[in-house]
Write a structure and sequence with these properties.
alpha/beta, Rossmann fold, 3 domains
Length: 562
């Protein structure tokens, strides 16, 4: 057996023994030994393999698989620029704490810095974004026993670090795999590989344990007038938070608090109403997860009159405003004998009711199916147990402001770096793990940015995923921000509005997905009930959506002033 094949088989065997259940690859020559070992493992029923022709799509697919499962997921590429296409997903995995394992096949050292084809400096390519990076070394003949132990040790370490087993800080890891020819095996691979583990208890390798939830244990008591701000957080923390909070919670949709007791609908609209907030400003804010969605939350956290405490299960906590006065490892909810300001907490709950009624009246008063109403209605129409993946930009913010939070729906969003790239692939990966009906809500530019994510190859599993796309023919969020002001009107359409002029139904159908267009609220439930893979397109208008966003803020403020 040639050294590259021997290495690849041990590598894949140790990945499986370490808890890997899914792997993703893009085709290539230098990565061939590992690719063949992966497909052999799939034939043996040891893992599930996903193949994508685009490395960036492959990486975000792996990100979605890892994000939804909490387990490390490897993504394999060939050498050269193929490895660079993983970078965006690695950055997202770094910032959001997702155990992504980048397996980058490479040329051997003698070909580096020589002008050899498809050769770049790959070792440490992702810099500080990787929790750990190893240039594994070229497999050599005649050193099988020593190399076997070394290879297994490296893979076990990579899985342990990626999963955050010891550090409570999961994230991406790179293994750079330098391989010499011959790259193809001379014989069929065995079904199983021996794994001698002298000195390790039970003869077993290290395993990638599930990250600890642990946020519900008592750490400290919260004072009166405490508001919980819950940002993006992992799904596997949700069971520990099933009791919710006795304090009002402003929870982003992808946080583990969304929909739990204490979570208030439209909390960001209340924070954005200066008059109401002046009378109900919290004395202390406890930040759980990583809030990134709204300016009113950022302004509250930057207020020097408010004491900010941060809860983090890892050494990487969110404190963009540098305002945290205390960092705790575990979330402590208010106990029955804690001095809770019940009247103040009740005022927040009542405010959520008034805000909800006000925005519902505005949304229901429009005859057309606006993007804002779409966000509310999609969440309401999902079956219990569904998965919802939210694209960055406007959709996740519309759900945050307008939807009724639901604890019986799992919500994911790439909020680590909050890019629009790779969202379809992330949703496909998450849907394949979810095992039930899955849905995604994303804008038209987000959809177009990852069209190759719709390419599911022959023999690949097809996800039960329905992607809902509000199509405003470009970058509609900018119409709601400073670039949308009249003084920028001359260049808005070209530079910010960026109209694409594509028929997204035809685009989706050309890539093999069923697709339809919905224009009224009454048509939406039936479209969502058809099952995936499917694309549902809803036409909207950028300027009209911006005007509606202002109307909704005004309606919420008026309701809170009454």
């Amino acid at each position: 057996m040639n050294p590259s094949t021997a290495f690849a088989r041990v590598l894949v065997d140790e990945l499986v023994r370490g808890g890997v259940t899914d792997a993703v690859l893009s085709p290539g020559s230098r990565s061939a030994p590992v690719a063949l070992a992966l497909v052999a493992a799939e034939r043996a029923g040891r893992l599930r393999l996903h193949v994508r022709i685009d490395e960036r799509t492959a990486a975000f697919l792996a990100l979605g698989l890892a994000k939804a499962s909490g387990r490390p997921v490897p993504v394999l590429t060939t050498s050269g620029t193929a490895t660079a296409h993983l970078h965006a997903a690695v950055l997202e995995a770094d910032a959001s704490g997702v155990p992504l394992l980048a397996l980058t096949a490479d040329r051997p050292p003698e070909l580096r810095a020589t002008g050899a084809n498809q050769t770049i400096e790959q070792a440490g390519l992702y810099g500080a974004a990787a929790r750990w990076a190893a240039d594994v070394g070229v497999p050599e003949a005649g050193r099988e026993e020593a190399q076997n132990r070394y290879w297994r040790s490296v893979v076990a370490k990579a899985l342990t670090i990626a999963a955050g087993t010891l550090s409570a800080d999961p994230g991406p890891v790179q293994l750079n795999l330098a391989l010499r020819e011959p790259l193809l095996p001379e014989e069929e691979p065995p079904a199983e590989l021996p794994a001698p583990w002298a000195g390790r208890p039970g003869g077993r390798p290290w395993t990638a344990a599930e990250p600890s939830a642990g946020w519900a244990a008592q750490a400290h008591r919260l004072p009166p007038r405490t508001l919980v701000i819950a940002g993006d957080g992992p799904l596997h923390a949700a069971p520990a938070l099933s009791e919710g909070s006795a304090w009002p919670v402003v929870a982003e949709p992808s946080s583990a608090f969304w929909g739990l007791p204490g979570s208030v609908r439209g909390g960001v609209l209340a924070l954005g109403a200066p008059g109401w907030l002046a009378a109900h400003r919290p004395e202390r804010v406890v930040v759980v997860g990583r809030p990134t969605l709204s300016r009113p939350v950022s302004a509250l956290l930057a207020d020097p009159a408010v004491a900010v405490e941060t809860v983090s299960a890892s050494p990487r906590w969110a404190d963009a405003g540098r305002s945290s006065s205390r960092v705790a490892r575990l979330f402590a909810g208010a106990e029955p004998d804690d001095p809770v300001d019940a009247e103040w907490a009740a005022a927040w709950s009542a405010a959520a009711g008034r805000v909800g009624a006000a925005v519902d009246a505005v949304l229901d008063g429009a005859l057309a199916l606006t993007a804002a109403r779409l966000a509310r209605d999609v969440v309401a129409a999902l079956p219990a147990g569904a998965l919802l993946v939210l694209g960055s930009s406007t959709p996740v913010r519309d759900v945050d402001r307008l939807a009724v939070p639901r604890a019986d729906v799992s919500v994911l969003a790439n909020r680590g770096v909050a890019g629009i790239d790779g969202t379809i692939s992330t949703a496909v990966g998450a849907a394949l793990v979810h095992g039930g009906p899955a849905f995604a809500l994303m804008g038209d530019l987000t959809f177009l940015h990852d069209l190759t994510g719709l390419l599911v190859g022959d023999g690949e599993p097809r996800p039960d995923l329905t992607v809902v796309v509000p199509d405003n023919d470009g970058g509609g969020i900018f119409a709601q921000l400073e670039p949308g002001q009249d003084r920028h009107a001359r260049d808005y359409r070209r530079v910010f509005g960026t109209p694409h002029g594509r028929d997204l139904v035809a685009v989706a159908e050309s890539l093999g997905w069923a697709a339809s267009r919905v224009s009224t609220p009454e048509e939406l439930p039936a479209a969502l009930a058809q099952g995936g893979p499917r694309i549902v397109v809803v036409g909207t208008d950028q300027r009209a959506e911006a005007a509606l966003a202002a109307e909704l803020r005004a309606a919420a403020a008026a309701a809170l002033a009454s």
